[in-house]
Amino acid sequence: MSELTLTVMRLGFLAVLWLFVIVAVQVIRSDLFGTRVTQRGAARRDARPQQAARQSAPPPQQQRQSGGGRQRRGAPTKLVVSEGTLTGTTVALQGQTITLGRAHDSTIVLDDDYASSRHARIYPDRDGQWIVEDLGSTNGTYLDRTRLTTPTPIPPGAPIRIGKTVIELRK
Amino acid sequence: MSSSTSTTNTANTSTIGSIGTPSRRNTELALLVFAVVIPVFAYVNVGLAVNDEVPTGMIGYGLGLGGLAGVAHLVVRKFAPYADPLLLPLATLLNGLGLVAIWRLDQSPRLQQRAENLFGAFSPDAPKQLMYSALGVAFFAAILVFLKDHRILQRYTYISMVVALVLLVAPVFFPAVNGAKIWISIGAFTIQPGEFAKIIIAIFFSGYLMVKRDALALASRRFMGLYLPRGRDLGPIITVWAMSLLILVFETDLGTSLLFFGMFIVVLYVATERTSWIVFGLLMSGIGAVGVASFEPHVQERVDAWLNPFSDQVMQGNSEQMAQSLMAFGSGGVLGTGLGQGDSDLIGFAANSDFIFATFGEELGLAGVMAILLLYALIVERGIRTALAARDPFGKLLAVGLSSAFAIQVFVVAGGVMGLIPLSGMTMPFVAYGGSSVIANYALIGILIRISDTARRPAPAPAPNPDAEMTQVVRP
């Protein structure tokens, strides 16, 4: 085999190998969805700039959503854990029921000694209003300062406290 | 590219979230085709360089690797449709490149002559490796079919501890091979149980630390910027440390002991978020390694070959491999000598297993070695990413444990072959020749794919909730 062919093959092979790596990285780039984690320290110090940053770079899903056209105006789109061990976790609200508790099959598995295994659930009613309901937990679920006794609609931005964990619905 | 947008709106729900998490199976298929084509290209390249002709085995080899990748892909498509699209193609590519390198070393007259002198006959290793890869894919498929949810593994926390201990201790009762007791032999088969033990012990570490992490994280005093754990909380870390030292002493296997202790430290750190554990871990492994090296001759030999690879004493002993390996990396340069045109077969013993990375270093050069290390890094990155996306603590810790075990293994082998750390008898995952290693690593990828499928699966469609219908909603 001529020297030239072998040299071309050698360089060609390296190029193909690197091409694979680059394609793989591109796939990762197009794959950025799932649980979003925000910096803990920054979240506590000032939440405002962070929110601004979040708005400046909206995830592609949200754009697709607004194209849907049937979304209720002002309805929250995600649930954000703002305090506790899971700080920074977000869950997209898709019209499904979200269960919270220490049970392994909960949507958000709380790692909190003060939470019951099936602690609370958050679900939309017929009008798309999100409702929080305490599922007979030991330590109770608090909306702002009041302990919940009945399923209650969640006003936007109101903190829901379960043990040491605080969650909010955000747009 | 399939982006299935699941519109979850029924007549009475006006809130629409159409974040249809796309199942990325078609992306995976495209990448898999790419990952099979690259090794076939390499195979042709080796054939042209060594024998001046397109190798006859090309069709069979390409079909073999392609068939394995196809089966694995179909199983993932059926049983884990939302899994990460990168893990399987990356593993397939590494496996294919390993097969090419092993086949290339089979062609070497020096190694053929050496095998005939030592064992009386030469048998090529590449077909055997292809068979082991098939077994590995079978394992991979079995895990995806039978393990419906990784959280089931949590039930076997303590059983897996016992199984892992048995697997780790078993080689002590079998004769040492090449100075290290890491094999057990049943009939004609020899198994390296350490490879399987690393997966099983990851289950134990994550199950155990998930339960105990609060005690380990919260009860501590602050001292000089570090959280010092209480004396009695040091129990588990000291137990694992002692165990890894015992492995080092009785099995004279540096790699395995480093792997277990390192994995434990990483999982412990992730579970408790306390930097002090890393400091303690580094201190303890340093003390342990230096202590054992001071009296164990096999370890001393390795350290000697690491510090002075070119000294007369080392070269005349059994350790000229290290010097040959360094020369191989050196003569590769930036772009390498080209596949099939290097002299890495001079390494002789274990050229296609422990030292296979030197072949890549010589024939693909720095550019190729970096690409291969990046492939490993991408597997680890996807593993950590899976851990971040997982919603249950056990899955998080297990994914971190498995990917850190993978990362540590790559570091220990690549670092050993390149002369960064003392050499240890471990194998480069997927690339090196060895049945246990390939099978265990396919199983590891299988578990990671199962966790990532669970983590990325979109939440179930809003089930009509009977309670919601009956309960009256109080509006202010």
Automatic annotation (TrEMBL), chain A:
Cited InterPro entries: Cell_Proc_Reg/RNA_Proc, FHA_dom, SMAD_FHA_dom_sf
Entry keyword annotation includes Phosphoprotein: yes
SMART domains: FHA
Protein keywords: Phosphoprotein
Domain FHA residue range list: 98-148
Residue ranges of the region described as Disordered: 39-75
Entry keyword Phosphoprotein: yes
Pfam short name (any one): FHA
Record-given protein name: FHA domain-containing protein
From TrEMBL, chain B:
Taxonomy, superkingdom: Bacteria
Keywords per UniProt: Cell shape, Membrane, Transmembrane, Transmembrane helix
Keyword Ligase: no
Compartments, record wording: Membrane
Spans traversing the lipid bilayer: 29-50, 56-75, 87-105, 130-147, 156-176, 182-211, 232-250, 256-272, 277-295, 355-376, 397-424, 430-449
Keyword Membrane (UniProt): yes
Ranges of biased composition (kind: Low complexity): 1-15
Membrane disposition: Multi-pass membrane protein
Chain spans, region Disordered: 1-20
Pfam families attached to this UniProt entry: FTSW_RODA_SPOVE
Protein name (Swiss-Prot/TrEMBL): FtsW/RodA/SpoVE family cell cycle protein
Biological source species: Streptomyces physcomitrii
